[in-house]
Amino acid sequence: MKISGGKRLSAEARQDEIVKAAVELAGAQGMDRVTSQAIADAVGVTQGGIFRHFPTMETIWIAVVHWTRGRLMGAIDMAASQATDPLDAVERMFFAHVGFAENHPALPRLLFSTSPRLKQLLQEMLAGYEAKLSQLLGEAKARGLVGPDLDEEAAAALYIAIIQGLVTRALVLGPKRSLTAEARRLFPIYLAGLGAGNAVDGNGAQPGRKQVRESE
Question: Minimal CB count within 10 Å: which of 11, 47, 139, 212?
C-alpha cells in the first residue's frame, strides 16, 4: 500500500496522509504491529520524514484519535440533523456510529490502548458524546417519546455500551454477521428499555417508527 509516492505536500496534508496510512495499516494488521517504517513505506517517504511530523508513534495515535473524533462526530451530527424528533436522532446516531465502526475496524482497538494520553482523549470524546445523548433523551422524555421515569444518563451510557459490546464481540469472536445487521437486532430491545414501546414487527422494527437501515 503506497499512498502518495513521496510527492511534495504541505505539512498539514502530509500529516493527514500519515494518519490515514496508520489507520489503514492498523486495520490490516492490528494497531500493535504498525511501525513507523511501515507507515513511511505506505506514504512513500523516509522514516525520518515521518518523525519530522510526529516525533513518536504515540503522537501518531493521538492524531488518529483526533481524526477519529472529527469524522465520527461529523457522521453522528449529520445523522442527527436528518431526524424528525429526538428519539429518531438517537436511532440515526446509533446506526451512523455502528456504520463508522464497521468501515474503520482498526479504530475500536484504540479503546484498549495503555497510553494515558490516549485514554484521556478517548474519555473526553465519550463524555461529550454521552452528554449529547443525554440531552436528546431528556428531550424525548419531555415530549413523551420514552418512559417518564427514564434515567437519560444511564440510557446514554447503555447506548455506548451496546456499540462497544458489539465491536468487542466482533474483535474477539470474529463477525458472524455485519455489525449493522447485529445492531438492527439489538436496537429495538434498547428502544423497549427506554419505554418507547415493547412490540416489534417481524423485521425487528418498532411499529409506527421508521428504522434506520443503513448508516449515512
Answer: 11
Is residue 140 within 8 Å of 195, Cβ to Cβ?
no
In the block, cell 444518563 appears at 153
Can you give the three-state secondary structure of 133-170, one letter per residue? HHHHHHHHHHCCCCCCCCCHHHHHHHHHHHHHHHHHHH
Is 151 inside any structural domain?
Answer: yes
- Quick check: is 3 in a domain? no
Give the 3-state secondary structure of residue 62. helix
Place of cell 434515567: 151
pLDDT tens digits along 108-117 = 777 666 678 8
* Mean pLDDT confidence for 175-199: 85
Which position has the grid cell 461529523? 74
3-state class of 83 per DSSP?
coil
Contacts from 52-58 at CB under 8 Å and sequence distance 24+? 53/11, 53/14, 53/15, 53/18, 54/15, 54/18, 58/115, 58/117, 58/118
Domain that holds residue 98: 65-194
